[in-house]
Amino acid sequence: MVKNLPLKQNQRGQLITTPTLQVVDHPEIFALGDLADCKDADGQQVPATAQSAFQQSDYAGWNLWASLTNRPLLPFRYQYLGEMMTLGIGNATLTGMGIQLEGSLAYVARRLAYLNRMPTLKHQLRVGLNWVTKPIVDAFVGKDL
Ligand SMILES: Cc1cc2nc3c(=O)[nH]c(=O)nc-3n(C[C@H](O)[C@H](O)[C@H](O)COP(=O)(O)OP(=O)(O)OC[C@H]3O[C@@H](n4cnc5c(N)ncnc54)[C@H](O)[C@@H]3O)c2cc1C
User: Fold this and answer.
1) What is the pLDDT of residues 34-48, one digit of tens each?
2) Shortest CA distance to 79 belongs to which of 41, 107, 122?
3) Which single residue of 11, 15, 87, 127 could bond 91 by disulfide (Cβ 3.0 to 4.6 Å)?
4) What does pLDDT average to over the chain?
5) How far is residue 129's CA from residue 20's CA, in Å, rounded to a whole number?
6) 51 close to ligand 1 (CB < 6 Angstrom)
7) Domain extents for the chain?
């Protein structure tokens, strides 16, 4: 769908944006996340990751409001927060913000970070409860159920 839009794109079909997340030649259109080819305020290429999309969403919301109310727009500043990865069951690796963790501690820290990212308290409770109860249910009732 994006490829069919009459907007400037790179070779991968991403919409080329300014650091304020406005599509080139179309300042009334904002693009972010994987479908946007964006260089931030410092000129660094913004990677196509969830943490970039998440950070861009604040700027896109703010800039949309600013453009509607004739206020100055903020150029996006990407902040690399690190990487987290599960390694099988109960094991993970985590690097970022000067911390490096491995093993079960990284596994727990990763889950807490994900819980923190849930949009509402309701989501946090549902997901957190599921993580705690699922192994117990699996143990007693069996995974097939
Ligand atoms: C296997 C895999 C692992 C990854 N792991 C990581 C990771 O560990 N860390 C990390 O930071 N990033 C990771 N990423 C990248 C991350 O998922 C993306 O960068 C992030 O999801 C981009 O967010 P987005 O909102 O731009 O796009 P998306 O999350 O892809 O959201 C786009 C949404 O638009 C919907 N959509 C598409 N077409 C239409 C249409 N025509 N009409 C209506 N809706 C439509 C889609 O269904 C989707 O819900 C991973 C990606 C993959 C594929």
Assistant:
1) 999 999 999 999 999
2) 41
3) 87
4) 93
5) 39
6) yes
7) 2-68, 83-141
Residue 122 has pLDDT above 90, yes or no: yes
In contact, 76 and 21? CB cutoff 8 Å: yes
| Secondary structure (3-state) at 20 | coil
> Ligand 1 within 6 A of 93 CB?
no
Enclosing H/E stretch for 27: strand 26-30
- Tell whether the model's pLDDT for residue 11 goes beyond 80: yes
pLDDT, tens digit, 9 for 90 and up, residues 48-72: 999 999 999 999 999 999 999 999 9
pTM: 0.85
Distance 34 CA to ligand 1 centre (A): 7
Q: Are 44 and 78 in contact (CB under 8 A)?
A: yes
Q: Which CATH architecture has domain 2-68?
A: 3-Layer(bba) Sandwich (3.50)
From the list 54, 52, 106, the residue with the least C-alpha distance to 84 is 106
